[in-house]
Input
Amino acid sequence: MNQSRVVQRLAAVMILFFLSATLIACSGGGTSGGGTGPTQAATPVITVNTTANGVQNGASIVSINDSSNSSTIFYTVDGTTPTTSSQVYQAPFLVASNLTVKAIATSPNDTQSTVASQSITPNIASGTLVWSDEFNNSTGAIAEPNPAIWTYDTGNSGFGNHELENYCAWGSNTSPCSTANPNAFVDTNGYLNIVAEQPSAGVYTSARLKTEGLFSLQYGRVEVRAQVPEAQGFWPAFWLLGNNIATVNWPACGEQDVLERIDAAATPDWNAGSIHGTGFTGGNLGTTFYFPAGQSAAQWHTYGMIWSPGSVDYYIDDASSPYATYSTSSISGLPGAVWPFDAGQSNFIIINLAVGGDWPGSPNSSTPFPSTMLVDYVRVYTK
Output
């Protein structure tokens, strides 16, 4: 073999070695220090805030975050180790009992994080006020509902009921909304006002406030003090939905209707309290409360819910005397029914005044505009 051929073969071997090494490096192969395989997702950070808006008497608002803001966080509040079948973290939630929060983070390009854990022991007595929005306002003018607590559903999608209203957020000038006539504001007397307007023939505006993404709770006694307008086509409501509506949709997320009535005052006047979930979305689990003689929903009343593991109770004006009690046994016999209120999620609050729709029907010439739903406070107590 002559010298030139040897040199050629050595060069070919070197080229093949270089190409092989490059291929291994690009494919993430090799031993430690030479690969670019998946990394581990960052461990979530559990933050306990005892001074957040509305919290009091030792309660706290818990939030869970990851440094990348791109991972999915799964969590538990019963001390068990979370898995990818646990609740997905969606929003800050109230903690007013002794419990342990645990969380993991996952990402498509990373391995699962280590478990974050935080024990919280507030040792709060039963019946203690632990969160509220009192709608205080000392500005001397109407004010925006606290944006750290309340956001809005907007538009005129009909909301599954062919409703007629356009829901407007504070500060919106998108027609037919108007900052000159806001549909949601806190007045100088300390009341939340939700106002139904008719800016032109056949056009209606109102407001639907919610705490989604900002505040939520699991278990406890939730109470609103309110007076509502009563006229053909009005549907005022105070209700809750599960944070997990973002992942399992309605009705699997569960719905708790605390204050709900339609149309003009009746004799006797009434309020409906109901629950909804998979397999019971209609009138299966609803109870009508009739006010005592001489009372109506247009007067001030407290409407409350006591949410405990396995049960939901409703009351009006007297927490010691519920007029409706629903439990896991209430859904027995309902085909396909699934109790949604103990799945580990927290629920957010909604307050709205709907106009028209399949239920309750359209306004007519007797329906006064503007008309206002007033809310004095929303409070949460330990159960």
Notes: The helical segments are 3-26, 245-248. The two ends are 94 Å apart (CA to CA). Residues 39-120 form a domain with the Immunoglobulin-like fold (CATH 2.60.40). DSSP finds two helices and 26 strands in the chain.
